[in-house]
Amino acid sequence: MINPKYENLAKIAVEYSLEVKKGQQVVVIGPSIASELFQALSVEILKVGAHPATYPQMEGMQELFFKNASNEQIEFVNDFTKVLYQKFDCLIQISAEFNTRKMSNVKPEKMAAYMGAPERKELLELFEKKVTSGDINWVILPFPCQAHAQEANMDLFSYSDFVNKSLFLDKENPIEEWRQMQREQEEVVDYLNKIDKIQVVGEDTDLSLSVKGRTWTNSSGQKNLPDGEVFTGPIEDSVNGKIRFTYPGIYYGQEIEDIYLEFKDGEVVNASAKKGGEILDEILKMENAKIIGEFAIGTNYGVDKFTKNMLFDEKIGGTLHCALGLGFAENGSKNKSPIHWDMLKDMKLPGSKIIADGKVIYEEGNWKIEKNKK
After folding, report:
1. pTM for the full model?
2. Between vectors from CA 278 to CA 276 and to CA 281, what angle results, nearest 5°?
């Protein structure tokens, strides 16, 4: 018997997020620990007449690869992966871990070589192109596991309740809840699409950027579950000023604390961190990693706790996040990079504001757009 909790989550992913059609090929990837969710997804995919292809990943394989692979093997992309990228219609990535610190001993330069390998970059560009054209749909969704519960300082039962709340699985009709979020955020996005200049003010922060001509995305369950954000890609050379991020940046299980960045004409010119500064320095050496590819505001107030898992954390209502590196073509971003690394700032703190074309549109965690429209 399929667990009802995972059955409901699978229905959201298949029916709402991806809108899977009969005959489509749907790839499901994730750790084997999430076997119950793999089963539920396979059943829902079959129900709509599509073709599931499930690829559970065994514990330890990724760590062993980076521990033993030569430089040539790190940069190599096998033919199976290439064919997979060319053929599938939908991708479901299950987010769960046996060990959230499994990559902590991998040197940043080794990871940079992996992400920056020419053929891998080509595949990522192909994937982005297909997403932009609508040829591929994808979604990431969580499976509550002990490792993530531990990182969040919760027992598994409390963490499962937290996950359910963030997904609206505690509601009578979760899919309708996601549709309601989509409708509400569409009004916000319509307003933001008319904005030229944004200024962020807060703790050790006075950052300005231009979004003129860039498109904002209403992220309400189509690509991430849980979801809840609006985002765009700022004009690459427009970012100026300073920003301090409230929460640790998590890079492959490694924590970088109290990140402070200064920008001039779109690039980081000064960077510091109280912990993990050497990792931050290595990240900034990667191609176009000094440029902000995404500027976003979290809108899911059901996600009310920092868990060291960006799938949840970037959606926290009352926060904003910036991603260094890759920007999304759907927003008009032109920044290409092997990295897309999110950093999170609490905007509920006193004095925190987002100002758009001279008007306060967001203050201490709450939208003020309606007030400015009057």
Report:
1. 0.86
2. 115
